[in-house]
Design brief:
Radius of gyration: 17 Å
Number of helices: 9
Helix content: 40-55%
Largest sheet: 8 strands, parallel, barrel
Number of strands: 10
Strand content: 15-25%
Distance between the termini: 18 Å
Order of helices and strands: EHEHEHEHEHEHEEEHEHH
Strand order of the largest sheet: 1-2-3-4-5-6-7-10
Oligomer: single chain
CATH class: Alpha Beta
Low-confidence stretches: none
């Protein structure tokens, strides 16, 4: 599997610093965030980052947008920016409500996502929903209901672990998404006393190995590191080494 990281891991760093980090860490690619590093509509910046990635041998995995399928969003600017960036996929969000509070929100979001997916298809771009608490992808049931309601072949779903759920439920989520899985956002968090605590990825290497093996039964997702303990560059490099091994390209595999 291909592996890399999302630039929201280091929102305060410049695109040049992000590329340098990627090279030093041996990343194969990057998901570029649309909130800071490549804002929608900044076409010149999108072109320049694409050229810089090409020069440095970095694949652009996806464009991390903050579209939510809400009325009135300027998704055309996001699509144009993603195309100029050379991103084959746009990550977006599934509304702004948890399933138990959504009511008719799901049908509205599904209709808007269907429109965005049709427009994205004209660009040859796929969409991947962020799998996140507080949205319609908070649970596997609501995520599948949303995908079914939208009915777009190029609309898929990311997955990331909800630290409030256990290991077995995580595996059930991955199996449920199955071939609709786009990419994996990789991190190790623990929920304690109402807070999410960031931990080294190495402490969850065994669990992530199972997540990746389960995902590989139906899909071939990219492994995208997201956030590190203390926003530390040192911890980033350590986590990227673990991710490389999880992708089947690290020391554990080379030795065999």
């Amino acid at each position: 599997m291909r592996f890399g990281f999302t630039t929201v891991t280091f929102r305060k760093k410049s695109p040049e610093e992000i590329i340098a980090l990627a090279k030093t860490a041996g990343a194969e690619g990057v998901e570029w965030g649309g909130d800071v590093h490549v804002p929608p509509g900044d076409t010149a910046l999108a072109r320049s980052i694409r050229e810089a990635c090409d020069r440095n041998g970095l694949e652009i995995f996806s464009y991390g947008s903050y579209l939510r399928g809400l009325p009135g969003e300027d998704y055309e600017a996001v699509l144009e920016t993603a195309q100029l960036l050379g991103a084959p996929m746009i990550r977006l969000w599934a509304g702004n409500m948890a399933p138990d509070k959504a009511g008719g929100h799901l049908d509205e979001i599904a209709g808007n996502l269907k429109k965005i997916a049709a427009a994205a298809d004209e660009y040859g771009i796929r969409l991947g929903l962020e799998y996140h608490r507080g949205t319609l992808t908070q649970t596997k049931e609501s995520a599948l209901a949303l995908l079914d309601a939208a009915g777009a072949e190029n609309l898929l779903c990311y997955w990331q672990p909800n630290p409030q759920l256990d290991f077995e439920e995580h595996l059930r989520e991955i199996r449920a998404i199955g071939p609709r899985l786009a990419n994996l956002h990789v991190f190790n968090w623990r929920h304690s006393w109402g807070r999410d605590l960031r931990l080294p990825l190495g402490a969850a290497k065994k669990q992530w190995g199972e997540y990746i093996r389960t995902a590989a039964e139906n899909a071939r997702p990219y492994l995208i590191l997201e956030f590190v303990k203390g926003d530390s560059v040192k911890n980033f490099y350590a986590d990227m080494q673990i991710l490389k091994e999880l992708a089947g390209k690290g020391a554990d595999n080379e030795a065999g």
